[in-house]
Design goal:
Layout (H helix, E strand, L loop, with lengths): L2 H9 L4 E2 L2 H8 L12 E3 L4 H13 L4 E4 L27 E4 L15 E5 L4 H8 L4 E3 L11 H7 L6 H4 L6 E7 L5 E3 L13 H5 L8 E11 L4 E8 L2 H14 L3 E8 H11 L11 E8 L3 H6 L7 E4 L2 H12 L1 H8 L3 E6 L5 H12 L3 E6 L5 E7 L7 H12 L24 H14 L17
Parallel strand pairs: 2-4, 3-4
Antiparallel strand pairs: 1-2, 5-9, 6-9, 7-8, 7-9, 10-12, 10-13, 11-12, 11-15, 14-16, 15-16
Bound molecules: flavin-adenine dinucleotide (FAD), D-malate (MLT) and zinc ion.
Length: 456
């Protein structure tokens, strides 16, 4: 009897995947930069089964890598052992715990504006479920068809609406999760007035699978916007884009997206996706803003600076403008395996940071875009070998030198564990390690993620 037999006794044989071909899909991340191995993939169907799986793995000291849609960008969802970030992680013994079968969706509580969803429900499924009741979920992202409720909580995902509704943590009213010893902590009543002790759901948000396996969540919902206007404007610099966004925000109170991209990304998207240029002429950079409210279009029209801009109010027209932004990720991956460096700097530092980037990424090709409303810049570098981390280090240090963070929304994962100290003090990291060892003393939940080696 081996570990997979133990797991089969819990979830049934067909929910323990052991064929190498099948495992391969679960141990390679979305970017293809991080590839590991695993003993097997287990797909439990309930929180109780997750708890039994965790206990069975603990008995055999097998590391567990929780996985939702596997759309994460920092190697946290796969048992990747390579690189200096996780030298002591034995990936061959690891178990990938997929949440695909945790797909429960309770009826929408229309009075409270809340819903309870299983960890494996995708963001698109969640939105489709709540929309008929007049609601939308506050976090939206281009990976919506695969990214899950559990994965977005575990990464504290930001997304395109974060300027209006906040990150995933802000949507959480409670979670159900399985701890490293198999105990289930469940807090799904949905009380908004609830100050009884530590915010464990808030702690699990951004924990990247290192503190527990999230099995369900109680989520806040927002009234769905019916009148939306999207504006795509050409600008000369990232600083100009930030300035224009500030003006728009001053005019209309319900801005729900403020996105940035550049000529190099537009050229790539147009080529890969077969799209025409978005405006009459090319610009060095672009700002895409979406605002809600019947009067948003009028308020924006008064802005003379939007003279050369495309404006759309109908769903098809807005989707056409959004394609230039949302198709960046796939277009970049079609060109090669990118080094994806998701950083944020203070809005006032966007200009100097962008100017200094060219030196940090030389001699490689850089494609820069992001959620400018949050100061969040996605630096994508094409050219260096996947294992060559020099450009990663240069860009992350540059962000830190500009008062920024090494992770704006994707998390630390395995990819950035070496550089956590650029954004968190030794005291903060020690406190994080204390939480980790209190909840997972044997270090079996996603080892190699967040923390690097013994010293951090
Ligand atoms: P996975 O990739 O499977 O896992 C991510 C991390 O969470 C891993 O550490 C994993 O171990 C852990 N995890 C997963 N499920 C659980 C669980 N149930 N319990 C405990 N830990 C768990 N991210 C953004 O923040 N904003 C964006 O705008 C955005 N846009 C994207 C667009 C595209 C096209 C793509 C491919 C990705 C994008 N991402 C974005 C990144 C990614 O979609 C997010 O990080 C998302 O939150 C990952 O969800 P997932 O279900 O795929 O999680
Ligand atoms: C996005 O904003 O599109 C994502 O975070 C994905 C990426 O960085 O490629
Ligand atoms: Zn993003």
């Amino acid at each position: 009897m081996g570990l997979s037999d133990d797991l089969a006794a819990v979830v049934g044989e067909r929910h323990v995947l052991t064929s190498q071909d099948v495992i391969d899909g679960y141990v390679t991340d979305w970017t293809r930069r991080y590839r590991g191995t695993a003993a097997c993939v287990v797909v439990p169907g309930s929180a109780a089964e997750v708890a039994e799986v965790v206990r069975a793995c603990a008995r055999r000291a097998a590391p567990i890598v929780p996985q939702g849609g596997n759309t994460g960008m920092v190697g946290g969802s796969v048992p990747w052992q390579g690189g200096p970030a996780s030298p002591d992680f034995a990936d061959a013994a690891a178990v990938v715990l997929s949440t695909h079968r945790l797909r429960g969706l309770e009826p929408v509580d229309v009075v409270a504006g809340q819903v309870t969803a299983g960890a494996g429900v995708t963001i698109a499924e969640l939105n489709a479920h709540v929309r008929p009741a007049g609601f939308s979920y506050g976090v939206d992202l281009a990976s919506r068809d695969s990214a899950t409720v559990g994965g977005t909580i575990a990464t504290n995902a930001g997304g395109v609406h974060s300027v209006r509704y906040g990150y995933t943590r802000a949507q959480l009213l409670g979670t159900e999760a399985v701890l490293a010893d198999g105990r289930i902590i469940s807090h799904l009543a949905g009380l908004t007035a609830d100050n009884a002790g530590y915010d464990l759901a808030g702690l699990l948000a951004g924990s990247e699978g290192t503190l527990g396996v999230i099995t369900a969540a109680r989520l806040r919902l927002w009234s769905a916007e019916t009148a939306l206007v999207a504006v795509l404007a050409g600008v000369d610099t990232i600083a100009a884009a930030a300035g224009l966004y500030a003006e728009i925000r001053g005019r209309t109170s319900r801005v729900q997206a403020a996105e940035y991209f550049e000529a190099a990304g537009v050229e790539l998207v147009c080529r890969v996706a077969g799209l025409p240029l978005p405006l009459d002429r090319e610009y060095p950079a672009y700002l895409l803003v979406e605002a809600a409210g019947a009067d948003a279009a009028d308020q924006l029209a008064e802005l003379g600076k939007l003279a050369d801009a495309a404006v759309a109010m109908d769903p098809a027209g807005r989707a056409r403008l959004w394609a230039y932004r949302e198709r960046h990720t796939e277009a970049i991956s079609a060109e090669g395996i990118p080094h994806k460096l998701d950083v944020a700097v203070p809005m006032s530092k966007l200009g100097p940071f962008r100017a200094a980037l060219a030196t940090a990424t030389r001699p490689y090709r850089e494609i820069v875009f992001g959620h400018i409303g949050a100061g969040n810049v996605h630096v994508n570098v094409l050219g260096p070998d996947p294992d060559d981390e020099r450009v990663d280090e240069a860009v992350l240090r540059l962000a830190a030198a500009h008062g920024g963070t090494v992770s704006a929304e994707h998390g630390i994962g395995r990819a950035k564990a070496r550089w956590l100290h650029l954004s968190r003090s030794a005291e903060e990291i020690a406190a994080m390690r204390a939480v980790k060892s209190a909840l997972d003393p044997a270090g079996l939940l996603n080892p190699g993620v967040l923390f690097c080696g013994a010293a951090g």
